């Protein structure tokens, strides 16, 4: 598919006068059959009302790459108020950027008005912070100005059903050919306008297996601290896109390379720089999440956050226990401290933070298997997640293997076999108290013989 695209690019000629490169229907691979009916309906209504309407952004990019995107955004010259009149039940959302959500059946299409440059607007339309971050940007413009206000060239491609052509003002088609993520405009200024663009650059590079163009790449490390100016709730949403899109491990590598990771998960960043086991646990958790997503299996941020924050929780718990605090209170205090630290950077909704802490708590309980405890543990609603997490801890080398195998066998056994397993455990003196290595920490190696 990409080879066909490259062949077509060679036939295109940039117009002599200023304007877009228009790729005719015969010279691109996009078919409207690949576009959702809801998006086509939105475009049709806008066009019938006398407005321009284009599919824009990732939907066009992914179609050109031969993908099958599910989400499509529409850009138009209609204001949000004008567009709202055309769609029953439509809602205007956002303050920083006003967007229309048009509901067609069960699908919601995001409709944005062409944007102009923020410097052309009044104070009530556009406003920047002292750091250069755009706090409000509702200045409207035309198709060309809208293209220039988008973040990356590969996201500034416009497809219209009026002639079925693609309009490219920024060289996005050529950058798709070169597999490059390139910022539109001066990268430092654009990152300061919205520091989340640094995360988007990394996310698209990981997702598409593209490289980040050199000028786009250079400011990343220097400007990474600007992420501290982003609201924790918004960063949580961005983390879901970064790490739960099926390319989490590769995304992590890039975030770490550009020193962005330490502003998202500061405690984890400290741990992975000093502990090979913490780094391995982080990688395995992300790899496991990627595999589950690719297999269309259920994933939850609670498990991923539990894994990413655990090394710091584990270290803090160990410090408290060394001072004489019993294991259970030490874990509770450590969990509270590290969670509070993380909340200063990214939000963690309670629907995820509560099961996250339950997964941690079960790491303390899983070694306790005597009597009826094993059966009760297995009936806990977080048992499966805690069991999977235990296996990751063993695989990463944080704790010695063995407990995970016992729980694997216990789940597969019938009732009589389970009773035998528990009886055998009790006869050997195990399973009644917390296992020696359940707390974690770096596994001790035996001293070499002298």
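Sequence proposed for the structure above (450 residues):
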């Amino acid at each position: 598919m990409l080879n066909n695209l490259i062949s077509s690019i060679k036939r295109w000629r940039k117009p002599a006068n200023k304007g877009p490169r228009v790729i005719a229907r015969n010279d691109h691979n996009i078919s409207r059959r690949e576009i959702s009916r809801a998006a086509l309906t939105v475009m049709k209504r806008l066009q019938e009302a006398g407005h321009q309407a284009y599919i824009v952004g990732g939907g066009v990019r992914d179609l050109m790459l031969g993908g099958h995107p599910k989400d499509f955004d529409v850009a138009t010259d209609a204001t949000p108020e004008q567009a709202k009149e055309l769609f029953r039940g439509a809602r205007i959302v956002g303050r920083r950027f006003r967007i229309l959500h048009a509901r067609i059946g069960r699908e919601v299409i995001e409709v944005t008005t062409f944007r102009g440059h923020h410097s052309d607007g009044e104070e009530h339309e556009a406003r920047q912070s002292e750091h250069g971050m755009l706090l409000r940007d509702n200045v409207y413009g035309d198709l060309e100005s809208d293209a220039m206000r988008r973040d990356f060239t590969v996201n500034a491609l416009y497809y219209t059903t009026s002639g079925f052509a693609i309009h490219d003002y920024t060289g996005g088609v050529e950058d798709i050919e070169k597999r490059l993520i390139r910022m539109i405009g001066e990268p430092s200024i654009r990152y300061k306008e919205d520091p989340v663009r640094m995360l988007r650059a990394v996310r698209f590079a990981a997702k598409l297996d593209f490289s980040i163009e050199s000028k786009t790449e250079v400011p990343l490390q220097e400007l990474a601290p600007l992420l501290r100016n982003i609201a924790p709730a918004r960063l949580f949403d961005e983390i879901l896109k970064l790490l739960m899109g099926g390319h989490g491990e590769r995304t992590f590598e890039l975030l770490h390379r550009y020193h962005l990771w330490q502003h998202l998960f500061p405690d984890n960043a400290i741990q992975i720089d000093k502990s090979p086991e913490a780094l391995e646990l982080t990688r395995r958790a992300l790899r496991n999440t990627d595999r589950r997503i690719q297999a269309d299996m259920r994933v939850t941020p609670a498990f991923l956050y539990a894994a990413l924050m655990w090394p710091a929780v584990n270290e803090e718990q160990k410090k408290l226990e060394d001072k004489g605090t019993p294991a259970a209170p030490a874990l509770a205090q450590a969990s509270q401290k590290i969670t509070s630290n993380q909340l200063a950077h990214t939000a963690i909704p309670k629907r995820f933070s509560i099961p996250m802490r339950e997964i941690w708590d079960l790491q303390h309980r899983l070694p306790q298997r005597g009597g009826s405890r094993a059966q009760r543990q297995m009936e806990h609603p977080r048992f499966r997640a805690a069991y999977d997490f235990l296996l990751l801890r063993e695989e990463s080398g944080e704790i010695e293997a063995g407990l995970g195998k016992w729980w694997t066998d216990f789940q597969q056994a019938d009732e009589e076999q389970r009773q035998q397993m528990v009886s055998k455990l009790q006869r050997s003196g195990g399973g009644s108290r917390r296992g020696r290595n359940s707390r974690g920490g770096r596994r001790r190696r035996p001293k070499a013989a002298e």
